[in-house]
Design brief:
The chain is mainly alpha-helical. It contains ten helices and two strands. A two-stranded antiparallel sheet has the order 1-2. The longest helix is centred in the C-terminal third of the chain and has 28 residues. This is Phosphatidate cytidylyltransferase.
């Protein structure tokens, strides 16, 4: 527990100031976290980052992460979707050149990994550019959901939520997480008035809390599939980058879409 607390304090001391500064320092931090997350996922599959498919995937990740605020610096008109398709073609060509050292399944895994991590963290950058209050709202939703799910589940949990994927999670914890997130969101709205109505805050908080828990379960599912306990060991007591950001990788894109649409 001491190790876990110490890691959390050190990570927060690095992470939170850069979130508050925003701009290029925050973008560099997000790129660094994304590369670590990519390494963690590729390693689960047995793929090396410093290999031909690993390097192609890494370059694809970097392009998918490219912030919209720097769009005017790019002098050629190529969309991220077109780059994605080019990466798929290169990876498929490598399956032939390598005589199936990497198979079609490996290519699909590498591409999906780049999309999942790349776009997930890309919207983290975009949300920060929209305003600091949105970032803290997203983080608060995830933390309050995790805390509510843990403590309510531990105190009252009896019915398993999804034992095949995460045997410790309960239905009571699921609802406890949503309830805690709603309490946090209403207090946050009261203190900051960052959204236009309490009803909107209430509705999107329920959605984001559910989405965040699905993100957590999604990472649990592929860790169970690849027979690993944690995605990495860079954060002692917490695991890897994906272990800490699995919920945010789902929450942040959904929050961005909701803010743009409504």
């Amino acid at each position: 527990m001491k190790q876990r607390i110490l890691t959390a304090v050190i990570a927060a001391a690095v992470f939170l100031p850069l979130v508050m500064i925003g701009g290029l320092p925050f973008t560099i931090l997000v790129y660094a976290m994304s590369i670590l997350a990519l390494f963690e996922l590729l390693r689960m599959k047995g793929l090396q980052l410093l290999s031909v498919p690993g390097i192609i995937t890494l370059i694809l990740l970097g392009i998918l992460l490219y912030p919209s605020r720097y769009r005017e610096l790019v002098t050629f008109e190529v969309s991220k979707g077109e780059v994605l398709f080019l990466a798929v073609l290169l990876l498929l060509a490598y399956t032939v050149l390598s005589k199936n050292i990497i198979s079609f399944d490996g290519v699909a895994f590498a591409v999906l990994t780049a999309i999942y991590i790349g776009f997930g963290f890309y919207y983290f950058i975009e949300i920060r550019d929209m305003g600091l209050s949105y970032v803290f709202f997203a983080i608060g939703i995830v933390w309050s959901t995790d805390s509510g799910a843990y403590f309510i589940g531990k105190a009252f949990g009896k019915r398993k939520l999804w034992p095949e994927i995460s045997p410790n999670k309960t239905i009571e914890g699921f609802w406890g997480g949503i309830s805690m997130a709603v309490i946090f969101a209403l207090i946050y709205q009261m203190a900051t008035d960052f959204l236009h109505s309490y009803l909107f805050v209430f509705m999107i908080t329920i959605l984001l809390s559910i989405v965040g828990q699905i993100g957590d379960l999604a990472e649990s599912a592929f860790k169970r599939h690849y027979h690993v306990k944690d995605s990495g060991r860079i954060l002692p007591g917490h695991g890897g980058v994906l272990d800490r950001f699995d919920s945010l990788l789902f929450v942040v894109p959904f929050l961005y879409f909701l803010l743009v649409l409504f």
